[in-house]
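Protocol step 6 of 9: fold each sequence in the batch and record its structure tokens directly after the sequence line. For illustration, a two-sequence batch is reproduced in full.

Sequence one:
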Amino acid sequence: MQFRPDRDQLVRGIVDAIADPTGPRAVLILGTGGTGLSTVLRQVCQEFGDDRTWFVAARPRHPHPALGNVLNNFRAPRSGERSERPSAVLAIDDVQWVDAGTLGRLTSLVRASTDTGLRCVCTVRVDVPAAAHHYLVSELVDERLVDLVWLRPLDETGLAALIGERSGAEPTAELVRHVGRLTRNRPKAVGIAIDALAAADGIRVVDLRTHLVRPDAVPTLRPQHRLLQELRGLGASTWSVAKAAAVLDPLGDAMPELVAEATGLPRAEVVEALHALSVNGIVRQVRDGGRWAFRLPLVQRILIGQTGPYERRRLAQVAVTAVWAGRARCTDPDYLADQQASAGRLLDERRAKAELLAHARASARPGGSANAGVWLRVAAQLSSDETERVRILWESAQLSAGQARTAEGLATIESLLNGLSAQPGSTPLLIDIHLAHITMLRATGNQAALGWLARGEPWPWAPDPVVQTMTRAGALYALGRWQQVRQLLDGLPRHEDPACRAEVFDSLAALWRGEPDRFSGHLSDPDQQGFPYTGALLTLGELTAAERMLARGGGHPEQLALADQAVLAARRGEFTRALTLTRRGLAPGVTPGSDPSRVGMIQTAALILLARGQLRRASEFVDRGHDGGRTALLHLLAVPQARAAMALGERQQAEYILGQAIKDAAGSDTVAGTDELWFASAQLAMAAGNRDRLDVCLREAETVAGELGTDRAIAHSLLIRAAVEPRSGTAALRAARALGQPFELAMAVEHLVRAGAADPRLLREAYGLLGPVDALLVRARMRTLMRENDVAVPDRQAVVEENERLLAVLVAQGFGNQQISALLGVSRRSVESRLTRLFSRSGYRSRLELAMAMLRDRPEPPVAVNAS
């Protein structure tokens, strides 16, 4: 029987083979542990029913009276009992454990199965040192009485599907690769891995996707878990050896000797325990008399997590001293650093500190070890020099922040602040530490602490007044209090701040207030401070200026903060990449960038989801933006909120949202981004035919454009003017093209055509720009506009498929026919007929079935992400 990757098909094939009177007398299902052998066997048994199935599970080193009773009591069917199907099915799980004598009786029964009507189905693990199955296989295969079925590990698609089922959400490609490495794609192990990673806080669900947020998380199982219970059931010595071997296994041939040294057990007892673990499929010998290795990395990592604090330090001490003495070798340089960090002061402190520092600094790069921050913290503990200790801890905190390990970075920084509060130090370093503290407080949502800092209330303050001023300014900036930032910094002499941090805060605060002169002076500055300015330009929609500044400073997109990378991708029209980066940036504890950049990231992601018809998910993103409390530029999130209401025909709600956002921006003394609010308000007024409101929007938008002076603010004002004076359409279109953003241009063309300020034939260009970004909803509405203006819509078959896909997306979100009608700009009758065709073609019988199918299958093209 040929193996088929689909498990249901596999089960059906086995059942059909057994039920066939001319088929095999027995089927052996072979595979390694964890591939689902027992599950497949039980599914086969369910097909025949309990009254016809005899199920026996064999176990190592235990008698099998149940199987003996079955063999002794089985009788041939009486006359008239025969049927086209077997009279009984004997299912034996883990037949490799059955003794040779019992196997001989079973073989005889199989040979006589023509008369008895008995059929056998057995699972055989081929990865344990049990030889009994070879006898069974060779005897019966030679006589052509048995079929062999190989049960392979999952392929990548099957692995992703199982992870999604277990975690409740579609997994990212990174998580699929990680679980595949841990489990070797074995189904049983996958379930354990997901449970263990969730318990260790290593995975999180964001936007209906399961993300790997901590690749280094040690998988954790409850003490009552079957795997741990079975291992403990092998005896205290074997349990101790299993844990020690998990830690010391990378040391190769030296492992058994070192396990004996660490546990105090005789070497012979250690080897006996390893053989017991081998029989149970936990370890294997790579070569005769050679090194041992764990079959699954998952089990090894789980066992490492079972070691107690002192036990772990002792094992690490044994490992390091053996390597230092030349008694053991390891090819993984990270392993030695991990053991040095675990052993700590049990080692030669000077040597351990030096090696940890060297290795951590060599690994402090994108894609480097996630444990580099831990190595630095331990090196700091081993240092006897306070100045060096502070410097190393600061390195560790920076590295933790860069790796999105915010909780660890925050703990490191707070220990630094408590230690430095009563003593003078380097002003630039202290400023950096306090500002990093503010960033991490924002990432963890500690609004109260930010308020204390902004007010200058008691805190572990450094005695330096410059440090205190800069810390308060940083907290005020995070809260969006631009005027207070500028007032506070006006009295700070710039020479007191060698790295010009005050200048960065001052110029950015001025920009958000609509005073860009101080900011504009830095646009040609190629130094490292260019990254905050690049992020600000991206948030404002100034793609060309941002890319020019990044290139002038010799920077690359991967060097930007995560939020800025996401906004850059969105502005360029790389929508799927932008969403991938945003999901990563919204994972708990991640610091994606400054507060304005984070809001810009969420705003652009929500607008992308709206364009794709995913209104519910867009709303969830906006809610995440508000979760952290009051922060800078929150009024930008009103844009996707209002546009969602506009799409649903809820004009009054949209007007309220925009009006409140305009009021909030004015209350926070913020001008930046209000051009988007006035543009959306103008479109509402235009749809309602409210000329007076349109004039107000034009006047306010031109004021904002005059203050900000950005290309995008000017483009928005020109687009509004075109709605008032159609002859301005040419200038507005030229300004929109100059932005260099495909989606913005398509939206500008649609606006101008609706305003009667542009040739409708331009809709073909706009429609083509929207195809690569999968803007299903916007394209559907544009098709309606094209037909209204007698512009031919290309590729009729693609249109039919796109309409069905969009309709399925909207139905899956729970929208009714009236809402779908508003969203698509068509009649309810049209919606009803489209739904009828969709259900007829797809085979789904209800909206619920369709919604569940959409949740299970939400494909997006894979995208490479470098979230440094």
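Sequence two, same batch, same settings:
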Amino acid sequence: MQPKVSIIIPFYNCPYIDQAIASAIGQTYSNVEIIVVDDGSTIHADKIGPFKDRVYYLGKANGGTASALNHGIRYASGEYVAWLSSDDIFFPDKVEKQLAFMQANQSMISYTSFDEINEHNQVLNCSAGTRFPSYLDFVKFWLQTDPINGCTVIMQKQLFSLVGYFDEGLLYTHDYDLWLRVLLNRIPIHFLDESLIMYRWHEQMGTKKHWPAIEREIAFTKAKYREQLLALIAQMGG
């Protein structure tokens, strides 16, 4: 029996939501459920209409991406959870390939490389993921910043009972914070060096609109975990 994978799509006023949903529906892996969490949108919700019979639609008051993800995860019935931003696109074989990789490596959490696209779906950059010569180098890099594109991640749902959910007090670095908790709990994060999503750059994306606030949150998150991370690196012989 194929394990079920729950694809969580947080949505807030995003004009690309229909493309994200279509890419989730078009997966070659059959045992998926798609949960669209409307985080209090005021526009573009009509684009979800044509897919209502193929997805679980959850509405909530606006609370940010972390709260939308947590809301969807709590409703998820899958053994695995994948996160798809409403402006990004999964390749058709994303779930099939990544889940097979995880099962082969007995992995609780994995991430992949990705291609970058613009608002017209034109490819800007192929295979944009960061590579590391060793797992120790990967762990050390977290002292600088988060090398993981969150929408490339698939994880076992039980991971959240081990390390907790996304921190809803963090509007932008909730994923950086969660992956650090995973690392500090000595749970290996496996990398599949293949582009399995298209990550969209556009003028309305949060990374461009809120960069000063994002920088402040990054600094806060780095400082919060720095000593624990340094201790882990020392234990690993770094």
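Proceed to step 7 once all outputs are recorded. Observation for sequence two: Helices lie at 17-25, 65-75, 94-104, 135-141, 159-163, 174-184, 206-209, 211-235.
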